[in-house]
Amino acid sequence: HLDALPHQVLEQRLDPRKFVRLHRSAIVNIDHVREVHRDGREEGWVRLTSGGRVRMNQRGWQRLVSMPGVG
Questions:
Q1: How distant, in Å, are the alpha carbons of 25, 26, 29, 68 from that of 22?
Q2: Could you tell me if 22 and 33 are in contact, meaning their C-beta atoms sit under 8 angstroms apart?
Q3: Less packed terminus of the chain by CB within 10 Å, N or C?
Q4: How far does Cα 25 stand from its chain's mean position?
């Protein structure tokens, strides 16, 4: 069950070309990111194709924009 795995372990098992950690509690598949919003320099969030909203910190933003085809 994926919920039983620590995020760090899960992150290592996922394809780094498709998945990005946006926050300490959030790893997303970039194919499901519909919108990216910044709230100042430190915080932000993404809207997923499912309609869900996921928090994003500054490091998450940097990771997201460095992904091929995103930034």
A1: 8, 6, 10, 16
A2: no
A3: N
A4: 9
Going by pLDDT thresholds of 50, 70 and 90, the confidence category of residue 43 is confident
Over 90: is that where the pLDDT of 42 sits?
no
Among candidate residues 11, 13, 46, 12, the one with its CA nearest the CA of residue 31: 46
| Degrees, nearest 5: CA angle 45-24-52 | 35
Angle at 58 between CA 65 and CA 7, to 5 degrees: 85
**Residue pointed to by tokens 């910044």:** 38
**Do 63 and 36 meet the contact criterion of CB atoms below 8 Å apart?**
no
pTM over 0.85: no
